[in-house]
Amino acid sequence: MTLAELGWDDFFAEAFAPYEAKGWFPARLIRETTINYSAFVGEDPEDVEEIDVVLSGKVWHDAETDADLPAVGDWVAVELGGENEDHVIRASLPRKSCFSRKMPGKSVEEQVIGANVDVVAVVTDSGPDHNPRRMERYFTLIGRSAAKAVVLINKSDLCPPEHNEACARELRALSADADIHVTSALTGEGLEVLQSYLKDGVTMCVVGSSGVGKSTLVNQLYGEEWQWTSEVNDVTGKGRHTTTSRELVPLPFGGMLIDNPGMREIQMWTDEQTLRESFADVETMALECKFADCKHGNDKGCAIRAAVAEGTLDLHRLESFLRLDDEILKLRKLAKKRQMTVERWAKRNHRVKARNLNDRIQLEKDEKGDWE
Ligand SMILES: Nc1nc2c(ncn2[C@@H]2O[C@H](COP(=O)(O)OP(=O)(O)OP(=O)(O)O)[C@@H](O)[C@H]2O)c(=O)[nH]1
Ligand SMILES: [Zn+2]
Q: Is the CB of 164 under 6 A from ligand 1?
C-alpha cells in the first residue's frame, strides 16, 4: 500500500514539511487501544507498513481536550525507535475533517469518531426507520464535520418504487449537499453506490440504526476475509467491538472504512437530541423562572406556569416537557430492546443461512413481526 492510497496529499505534505527535517515519518493512525495506537507508517511512501506507536508526553500535554488528542484517521509525525525502543508520535497534523459528536447529556465533551473522514454514509430504509427529523440531525452532524453526506435508503426490494422515491424526495428536500440513493443490499445496488465513492485515498464511515443493513453492506465491501459483525461471541459473551474498539480498514478495491462502536450509538443519541431540541422553546422560557431550581409546579414566579395561564403554552406540551427525562429513558430502553431483537435475528439468520432472495425476504417479514 502507498501513502497516497491512505489519503496522503499536498495538504498533509505541506503540514508535514517541518517534521521531515527532523527525520520523522508521516503515519496514519488506524487503531486505538487504551495503551497505544497502530499506524501505517510511510518510511517508504510507496510501501507503508503497520506498526505500533505511542504518544509522546508533549503531544499529550499540548492537547487541551480529549478531542485534540490523536484519533483514528489522524495523520501524525512518528519518530521511529531503534531495537526494543518505542516508535513515538511527536506531532499531529491538522485535520481536514473531523466526525465527532458531543457526549450525550449536559456534558460539553466532544467525542471524536473519526478524523479525516471524507464521506459519511447513513443507511436507513423507507419503512420503520424512515425519520426525516433524525435525518436532519445526521445532516447537521455531518455538515459540521466537513465530510460529504451520502444516504442509502436501503431494502428497496421490500417497498414499492413510488414509496422509496417519495422518501428520497423528502430527504432531498432537507439537504442540498447530500446525495440520496435508493438501494438494496440484496441486489448489489448498495455495494455499487458505496464503491462509487470509495476511490483510492477516500475514507468513509457507515452509520445508521440497528437492522438497516450496515453489516450486510460493509461485509460486501470487505469481501471474504474480513467480516464486520454485531453478533455476540458465544464463548466470551462479548461482541467483536469490545476487543477491537476502533479501526480504519483499507478495502480490497480501494478506499478505507472507519468502524467504531460509537457509530452504533449515534442513532440513539440523535433521537434523544431531537427530543430535547423539540423542547428548546420551553427550556428558554424556563430561564425566566424566578428560581433556578424551579420545578415548574407550584413554585412562585414560574414563567412556564405563567405562559400556560396566559395560553401561550399548551398544557399538554408542558406535561410532556416535565416527562422529558422519562421519555429519554424510554427511548434508551427501546433502543436496547431493538438491539437485542436484532441480535436474536442475526443469530437465527445465521442458523438458517438464507442465501437466496426469497428466503431472505421471508426472514425479513418474520423479523418485522418481532418489532414492536
Ligand atoms: N430485504 C432486504 N433485507 C436486507 C437488506 N439489507 C440487509 N437486509 C437484512 O436486514 C437484516 C439486518 O441487516 P444488518 O446488516 O445486520 O443490519 P445492521 O444495520 O448492520 O444492524 P446492526 O448490526 O444491529 O447495527 C439482515 O437480516 C439482512 O439480511 C436489503 O437490502 N433488503
Ligand atoms: Zn418554572
A: no
Which atom of ligand 1 lies closest to the CA of 219? 15
What percent of the chain clears pLDDT 70, i.e. is strictly above it? 80
The reported pTM is 0.75
Instruction: Give the pLDDT confidence of 225-242 residue by residue, as tens digits.
Output: 544 444 443 443 333 333
Fold of 279-322: Ribonucleotide Reductase Protein R1; domain 1 (1.10.40)
| pLDDT of the residue at 360 | 59
For the domain covering 98-261, report its CATH number: 3.40.50.300
How many Å lie between the centroid of ligand 1 and the Cα of residue 7?
30
Ligand 2 centre to CA of 306 (Å) is 9
Alpha helix locations (H) across the chain?
10-20, 57-62, 132-145, 161-172, 189-197, 214-222, 240-243, 261-277, 280-286, 303-310, 315-322, 324-352, 357-370
CATH level 2 (architecture), domain 4-92: Beta Barrel (2.40)
User: Which of 46-60, 124-138, 229-243 shows the lowest mean pLDDT across its residues?
Assistant: 229-243
Helix axes of 161-172 and 132-145: crossing angle, nearest 10 degrees: 50
ipTM: 0.95
